[in-house]
Hints:
heterodimer, A: alpha+beta, Rossmann fold, CATH 2.40.50.100, 2 domains, six-stranded mixed β-sheet, five-stranded antiparallel β-sheet, about 25% helix, B: mainly alpha, MetI-like fold, 11 helices
Amino acid sequence: MKVLYELSGIKHKYNGRLVLDIPRLVIEEGDIVGLVGPNGSGKSTLLRILAFLEAPSEGTLHFNGMPVGSEGEPPRRDATLLLQDSFLLKRSVFDNVIYGLKVRREKSLRKKAFEALKMVGLPPEEFAHRPWYALSGGEAQRVALAARLVLRPKVLLLDEPTANVDEASAILIKEAVLRAVKEWKTTVVVATHDLLWLYEVAKSVLNLYQGRIAAHGTSNLISGPWRPINDGLWERALPDGQRILAVSPSSETATAILDPSDIVIATSPPAKVSAQNILSGRVTQMLLDNSGERVAVAISLGGVSLRSTITPKAVKELSIQPGQRVWVLFKATALRWL
Amino acid sequence: MDYILEGLINGIVLLVSGDEETYSAISTTLKVSTMSIIASLIIGIPIGFVLGYFDFPGKRTLRTISDTLLAMPTVIVGLLVYAFISRRGPLGSLGLLFTLPGIAVGQTILALPVVVSLTAGAVEGLDRQLKLTLLTLGARGRQLAISSLWEGRYAVLLAAATAYGRVISEVGASMMLGGNIKWHTRTMTTAISLETAKGEFDMGIALGLVLMLLAFAVNAALSAFKKRAAQ
């Protein structure tokens, strides 16, 4: 696959405060990359840099093999960003959708706009002439997405596309995005807290934490307070009285990352295992990922949710299902400190 | 009380019968206010946009000056413009004194701070996401500026309506620069002022009714623009 973005030594600061620090990141053409992480982890900042709306404070950004920012206009018309709040221009739905085409002086505006509206599940005859204020939150977000899709963008960047929309809209947004990837080889980068939605869309996931790529995949983040117990072991008490054990955190408030594939699931209390963390919980969600090779299992442990990934075969053998009581096992050393 | 009621009835009769002198003042007012509002919008909107959209040294000072000029007394504007366009003034050769363009110059100066300040405020008040949205949809340079102004169009119309309200209701500058010449530079406000001083209420009331009607129309427009600007 052709490399589309290449970021090297990117650092970005707001008022002297470092908000993004990415030593290296490569995104290939046609990829669907998910960005996850808590609020303030740098997801939106990274999207704005990828959309060429902000230039990084330090480092180099290559797009399509060309350095960006050294001279000339950034290739802003190749990448388009869908903002988190479905911001629409104060004009009709049709005029919103064709805006990007008009500034590019393109033709066949009506045909293209109607196609884009259909793509996001909005019947053009019904919606095209509606004013911007006569739309629900989900409809407005889909109109905003149609205004991007009509451009047949090389890169589509989505910032929390499903944050303020209903379930039906989230499904329509997913289908439209996947169609863009399939039909036009659009590269998609999407920042979201909606992990289930992301799991169905993304080919790869980056976990951002405090501006850094903490892990690849939808890793679990476990934050303090940690309390020392003995032999270098520390514990993090859970609301239901259980505890997570870890080895030598950097501070009492340190955050650990736990890879979902390091978590083993058992359907009965295990005996004689070397793992120091054996916790009981309930399965809350199960979802087959985009590749069809892994199943994400979300388990609630007295208020804390952990994600494990297992194979469809393991799901069948364990015959687990949502609501079922299970035990999760992982080593204290499996927790890596951020 | 009777003479007020009588004045009101006679005023309505003047309007209904199409009294030439009354309609001359109405026509003069509409002509001169149209000239001044067009001039103030052509000059004021670009200045207001620059003040609201860009950040540059001295921007705050310019905004403060513009805001202060909002309260400038009409007679001061009349005095200043009179000094410039009177025969002895630097622009005396243009022969603007006691003409409609002369009044329009004064009214333009009165309306300009309203247009500049309210346009700048409207542009400053545009959603922060607007610029990002326009950029990410591919707008560049002039497209960005025009689209931003278009997004604030209701707020700019609000500025225009407010400025028009100030222009049609002022009397000081029109009196000083127009000279209140019958059939020529007599506007509604200067006519009301003169007729009242003469103790003739009929025409004053007739013109007052038209002025109130105009003020009502301007207010209705303001209200509609405010509603749209907030959506």
